[in-house]
From TrEMBL:
Species for this entry: Streptomyces atriruber
Stated name of the protein: DUF2993 domain-containing protein
InterPro entries for this protein: DUF2993 (IPR021373)
Amino acid sequence: MSKRAIRILLIVVVILGGLFVAADRLAVNFAESEAADKMRTSEGLSETPDVSIKGFPFLTQVMGGELDDVEVGIKNYDAKSGSDSIRIADLTAHMKGVEFSGDYSSATAATATGTAHVTYDELLKASRSEPVELPLGATGKVIGLSDGGNGKIKVAVEVSKGGVKLPKPVYVLSTVRVEGDNIKVHADQIPKSIDVLGVSIPLPEGTARNVTDFDQKIDDLPAGIKLEKVEAAPDGVDMSVTGSDVRLAG
């Protein structure tokens, strides 16, 4: 074969390769858009999620009937919490081994791992809204949550007696953990007493924990993923999520 023929052949190969890459990217963009729309409908989302199909080429993955890696990002997801709901600011899930049906109407991932974030203001809604009775006619109510450092949550408790509030809240450091579908906030230590308007109010631990400790149930994460771990962060709590045989769409 002459040098001219080889040169022409190489040019043709490059052009065909470019056309294949362009077709592959068009196909993956279309698939991502379709999957996002289906997920928004099936999960009843207020916003269309971000769906990113990883790996190249996409078309050969489709021919094999399985996608290697799909990343889903959801903003402002309202997860059920009993009869109420809690807003998850950011939810990202990495799904591996995504198989889809013959007509492409549904897809299921073999495994999924990801992260989610709930702000302290949102988590605060899980605490008791009404003041809790303390000894000697005092009452207590959680009014704020913030980062306590070293993986702890700083819980601010407003204490009142005779309708008069303490000038400053009482603060306790709390541990946050996952138990089943619940995020649990548990005070590490309860003060034995507090001074309210010159009166020493004893704080029996059981009574005080009726104020400081609370649970937030999250039982409606999308696609069947579950809570695995939670830790305090500067502006809220970060959660790890996991799942198997996770439905992506359909």
